[in-house]
What we know:
Blueprint: H1 6-20, H2 25-44, E1 53-54, E2 68-69
Parallel strand pairs: 1-2
Amino acid sequence: MPNIGPLEIIVVLIIVLIVFGPRRLPELGRSLGKGIREFKDSLTGHDEDEEPREIERVNADEKPLEGEVVHTRKP
């Protein structure tokens, strides 16, 4: 597999600048970053829209699951 050095990266960046222009580069960077962030979140299972779950336990001695909201009742 060929090594990618700094000269090759500079050439690719110049070609991207010529093709898309300087006005669209920030927009492309934002959309690329957002796409990578969404992909990473989907792999790890994190979701901003997801609300914590409330589950009533039959056995109070069980440990709560990760991300689970636990309400304790005072007798």
